[in-house]
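Aim 2 progress update. The chain analyzed this quarter is reproduced below.
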Amino acid sequence: MIAMRNLLIPALLAATVPGATAAVWTASDNTVSAIPDGSSSGLARSLVINAGSETIISVEVGLNLSATSGGTAFLGDLYVYVTNGTDVAVLANRPGRRAGFPAGYSDNQIVTVTFSPVAGSDFHDYRLTETGSHNTALSGPLTGLWQADGRFTDPATVLDTDARTNGLGVFTGDAATGTWSLFAADLSSGATHQINSWSLTITAIPEPGTTALAALALAGMARRRRPDKQ
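Predicted structure tokens:
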């Protein structure tokens, strides 16, 4: 289901495109799907956004994961990204994987998080935020707002020190309309995750050129309706 609500455009954009308003487009998928265990083939789920000619200001992604029913899972196994077919934002790339700890974090917890470009903490090192230590396991579900991992690196070699080049900011300026895909892979065998749901929240504005032309047209109409000065 897709919904849209109007918001005030940020001041800078409003100054650039007078009269333009930002819109928020949301879409969600609640289909429960198991992620193939120990396989790079992974699982892909898609959502379609129909936002006309709107251009992206920001993107947020909601994600709910858990172990499959009656099973266990390890969050450090996961590689998850979202793409619009043009750009790729890496949400999770083997969380906790660092020098000396190639398996990443072993937490077996439900994940109900939102990845946001304005969040404060890096998802790759979520234990540091939640427990204060890489070595202290979670005691409950992982929730809240997080920055996307952003490490566009081979999951077999990724480390916490790798550059974070592919966060959600890669979508800024792209077209909002299109097919958006979430890809998730469990890269170590022995425990299985499932995607319970995922969602997109896209804030966008009309293309500047389109809005400017509309503004000029309205201005022209106003001039035609005003009596000529004598």
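Residues 208-225 form the longest helix (18 residues). The chain has one domain: 26-225. These observations will guide the mutagenesis experiments scheduled for the next reporting period.
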